[in-house]
Amino acid sequence: MHIQGSHWSAAVATTADGTSGRNTPLRVDAQRNLEHVLRAAREVFGELGYGAPMEDVARRARVGVGTVYRRFPSKDVLVRRIAEEETARLTEQARTALGQEDEPWSALSRFLRTSVASGAGRLLPPQVLRVGVEVEPEEHRVQAQVPDRARVPQQRQPGVTGGQLHELRLVEQRPTMVDDRDDAGAAALLEVVGRLVDRARSAGELRADVTVADVLLVIATAAPSLPDAAQQAAASSRLLDILLEGLRSRPLA
Q1: Same domain as 138, residue 94
Q2: What is the pLDDT of residues 137-184, one digit of tens each?
Q3: Which among 52, 135, 153, 197 is placed 20 to 30 Å from 107, CA to CA?
Q4: HEC letters along 37-51
Q5: Does 5 fall in a domain?
Q6: Contact, 246 vs 253, CB < 8 A?
Q7: Rounded to a whole number, what is the largest CA-CA distance in the chain?
């Protein structure tokens, strides 16, 4: 998934749902245009990434680009709307799998299959994919990459572990324009997917080293964008079968 050309700006004139904040209902034609724009944006960003221009969205929606900008005064607003919807969609899919599947592995695999089939993974916001990434211990990474004269002692807060310190660094590296609403949606998704992962791992059906980030990465990469819908569905199903086999725990010989 390509994240380019978007700053996730919070300084916008409209609300995150693309409205101006007024209580006046949209006219029928305006509501229809909004639905066309949102559907087109999901398709275009899913195929080309969030770097795709607004003109591409307008062409796919068969409206003028001015119509798009009347609903979404900046590309950032439209990107946030789509990313929020996809995060909420994945969260609901995870909750459904958790609530309707008694077997831990069945719940996790159902969530993955449903999410990949919906194509939601191609539209995950970047802050979701960053969470939980594991790296080498800081001292090893610094020693390997930074010349002696440029090394600076790492300032570590009392009582903070290396893993926690890394999480703090991740937070610091997130775009400063990401607001609390974005973080709340990401946190809800991470929490429920974490429960699916914990259940499958505790049952001995999921590899012990698999993390929530790994599961989200599967969703983000197992839905290739192909011009033929039937080919895309077949390719996604095949790729997911292979990835699921890689996630499963194997008994020791």
Answers
A1: yes
A2: 444 434 434 444 433 344 433 343 444 333 333 333 333 334 555 678
A3: 135
A4: HHHHHHHHHHHHCCC
A5: no
A6: no
A7: 67
Question: Are 137 and 59 part of one and the same domain?
Answer: no
Instruction: Give yes or no for residue 201 having a pLDDT over 90.
Output: yes
Number of structural domains in the chain: 2
**CA–CA distances in Å: residue 233 to residues 31, 99, 113, 219:** 31, 26, 11, 14
> Is 69 inside a domain boundary?
yes
Residue range(s) defining the domain that contains residue 30: 20-73
- State the amino acid at position 51 in one-letter form: G
Predicted local confidence at residue 10, as pLDDT: 36
Q: Which token pair is 82?
A: 């789509």
Write phi, then psi, for 248 (nearest 5 degrees): -70, 145
- The closest alpha carbon to 78, from 45, 48, 118, belongs to 45
For residue 240, pLDDT beyond 80: yes
Provide the token pair at 220. 């983000």
Instruction: State the alpha helices, DSSP H only, in the chain.
Output: 28-48, 54-61, 65-71, 75-100, 104-118, 126-130, 138-145, 162-173, 180-202, 212-221, 229-247
